[in-house]
Amino acid sequence: MFSYYAYWTWVGLNSTDENIDEQIAIAKSENKEALLPVVTTIPQDGEKLGSLSIPKLKQTFPIFFGDSETILKKGIGHIRGTALPGEASNSVLAGHRDTFFRHLDQLVVGDKLIVERSSTYYIYKIKKIRIVDNDDNTVIVPKPRHTLTLITCYPFTFIGPAPQRYIIEAELFLKPKMESKKQ
């Protein structure tokens, strides 16, 4: 796990934002929003990572590192061991069904999710919605694509500990173009 974070910290420290204006111009000319890479640092438990916006629901929630009960009372929790929002692979976010993720059942395939992290916006498009058992760990496995997975308890109206989980999987809508630094 340390190697994973060390690698991404190295990548973040060695990245350049020299082509940001060019990427934004290209995205605007293609009538799309620009997405840019995040500079990665190792977050501390409870540290705010950014925010999750759900345009269809007109809601924005803070994202915190970790998934303890204390964190889930403040906002959305990032599941440790999964990619940080904006990184390659599977970034998994959890929230309570009776607070922040109360209306997730109103979303459909094709809806957008926006993650803001380090003043960079990542737009994801919902590809799959499913219901799994509460002990199904396949939802947190690494993915070959930039994926954002939202998890909450299900059914939404269940009283007490819910027996299932409601899963939304979304893929990065527009991957940023990175060009090598010219010398």
Radius of gyration (CA) equals 17 Å
Please trace the helix and strand order, writing H or E for each element.
HHEEHEEEEEE
Please write the CATH class name.
Mainly Beta
Characterize the overall form: globular
List descriptors.
hydrolase; Sortase; 32% strand; Sortase, Chain: A; eight-stranded mixed β-barrel; 3 helices; globular; alpha+beta; 183 residues; Sortase_dom-sf; Class D sortase
Describe this structure in words.
The protein is α+β, with helices and mostly antiparallel strands. The protein has a single domain (2-172), classed as Sortase, Chain: A, CATH 2.40.260. Helices cover 15% and strands 32% of the residues. It contains three helices and eight strands; from the N terminus they run ααββαββββββ. An eight-stranded mixed barrel has the order 1-2-3-4-7-8-6-5. β1 (48-54) and β2 (59-65) form a beta hairpin. The protein is globular, with a radius of gyration of 17 Å. It starts with a helix and ends in an 11-residue tail after the last strand. Residues 4-24, 30-34 and 176-183 have low confidence and may be disordered.
What topology does this entry show?
Elements (H helix, E strand, L loop, with lengths): L1 H12 L6 H10 L18 E7 L4 E7 L3 H6 L1 E3 L11 E5 L17 E6 L2 E14 L13 E8 L9 E9 L11
Parallel strand pairs: 2-3, 4-7
Antiparallel strand pairs: 1-2, 1-5, 3-4, 5-6, 6-8, 7-8
Give a nutshell description of this structure.
By secondary structure, the chain is of the alpha+beta class. Helices cover 15% and strands 32% of the residues. The C terminus is likely disordered.
